[in-house]
Every structure is written in structure tokens, then in C-alpha cells.
Amino acid sequence: MFETYEEIRQWREETMASVVDDHRQLNAFHDQLMYQTLRIAKETIESEQGPPPAPFAFFLMGSAGRSEQSVWSDQDHGIIFEGSSPCQEYFLNLGAEISHGLAIAGYEKCEGNVMASNPLWCRSIESYKKQIHDWLNEASWQSLRNFSILFDSRVLDGNDDFLLKVKRESFAVLEDHTHLYSRLVDNFEFIKKGVGVFGQLLPEQRQGMKGEIHLKETAYFPYVNALRILALKKGVSAAPTLDRFEILSYSYPFIEAYENDFRELLKFRLRYKKQAESYEKIHLLPLDQLSKQDKQQLKYLIRRGQQLFAKSKSVLKEESSL
Prior knowledge:
There is one protein chain. Helix content is 59%, strand content 7%. The chain contains 12 helices and 6 strands. The strands form 2 sheets. It has a 4-stranded mixed β-sheet, sandwiched between helices. The protein has a two-stranded antiparallel sheet with strand order 5-6. Strand 2, helix 4 (88-105) and strand 3 form a beta-alpha-beta unit. Helix 2 crosses helix 4, helix 9 (215-234) crosses helix 10 and helix 11 (256-273) packs antiparallel against helix 12 (292-321). The model has no long low-confidence stretch (mean pLDDT 90). Residues 20-139 form the Protein-PII uridylyltransferase N-terminal domain.
């Protein structure tokens, strides 16, 4: 049993090489690292402030929420609790301790502050439900982005039903306001072009990234965004993209043809990024490291993701106009 965050970091460094070749094993290991960090954080806060004032759940968002982390990952997490807002201060302190522990264990703090130490991501069940209504009523770019971040979530510790209640609220609002699906599609639609008109891979032009392709933005997001919008339409609460492929294939048989492409993309990412030394570099792939065959495979996977997103958008449009 680990007693300090530093011991968890050491376990991570000693074990990572043995799980890095398998997507599922890698993400199961990330879950264990975060669960052990959470355990120490809970013990620390309980020793200082007593037991939690209400039942709660700690949940993951982003790539962790989808069980799609690579070797390095930043923090995306929240807390949801029963009861009223007076409990919030306790859970904000717990969120801050969790974030502190995860940073030591090897997970960089989220630049966008999507962490349980932020009141936006540390709320009661009823407060989250109200926030869902506010975000969808406002329907601005940022509010819809926050909504989609929360939707890609799963409970790591605590009662799954707390988060499920919030997701069910989301489905009900969208059913009553179907025009929001097209707004969400527009919000997801920004896809960085990875392949040029002549079939060439397009590297980054931003400072410090020249000659590299941003794998997450160009190749990975189109698959994730397509399955998210279909999951919202069909009321599927599961967050992992692979789970969404499996569940949604009954309603949308066309997606089956793309599932293996997504699996290949996950393998491709691990093959090239398992030696990455930091989170900053985990999504950037220097094109000069790729063989001719790998460049062809990457171009194919990028195109397939774009086709899947376009097809999903078209199907959603047809359903919304019925």
C-alpha cells in the first residue's frame, strides 16, 4: 500500500514500460495510479477536516474519461456530491489535494482548469443539472465545449448513478431542443487538416512544432467527435469511444466499418509515442521519423476519420429533419 504520492510516481516509472504496448492495459494502469492517488488525498483531507459531509463520486473527463490516455496525460476530473452547496468547500479542498497529488504522480495540471479544485467542476447533482440547462440554453462555443467535456466522463470512485442522473438530464434537454444537435456538430467540426489536396501530410506551422503533425487534432478528434454526437442523439451514456462504437453499431450500422480504423490509430499512437518524455510532446509526431509505409497508413487513418465525421453529421441532419 502506497503512503505517499512520490511512491506512486516511482511505481509509475517502474511499471509503465510493461504496459505501454497495450491500450487497455495502459489505461487500466492509469486508473490504478489515479485511484491510489485519490485514496491518499481522501485520507489526508479526512485527517484534517473529518469525513466527507455527503456521499460523492470522483469522475474523470477528457482522454481519461474515455479510457484513451497515452503514456502521458494531463488532469481532467471533477467531483459530484449529494446534498446542497454548503458541502462544496470540503469537496473543493479535496479536489485541490487530489490535483496536488496527481501532479506529483506525473499528471500535469489542466491548463483549462478542468479539475475538481475549480467550483465549475465540483458541484452537487442538482447544481450540475442546472449547469447543463444553462450551458445548452446559452449554446455559445465555450458553453457547448464545457458540455461536451462533461459528457465524456466516467466515475473512477463513488456512485455511478450521480453522474448518470446528470447525463440523463442532458438527453432530456436535447430531446426537447433538437436544434441543439446542429449547434453541437458545429462546435465539434473544427478539424485541423492533416492531408493536403495533393495527398501530402500537412505538418504544423506553429512556433516550436514545425515539421510535426498534431496527431490528436488531425487524426484522433474526428473519430471521437463523431461518436460523441451519435451517443448524445441516442442517449448512450458510456464515455469510451470503443464502447460507443459497440453500443451504437445497432442504431448506426455504417460506423462498424470505421471501428477497426480507430483501433489501428490507437495502436499507431502508442507505437510512436511510447518513448515521449513529457505530456507536451505526446500529441506531436515528427514526420521525418515516419517510414513511407507509416505515412501512407497515417494519411489513410486521417481520411477515414474525416469520412466518419462527415457521414455522422449527414445522418444526424437527416434524423433531425424527419
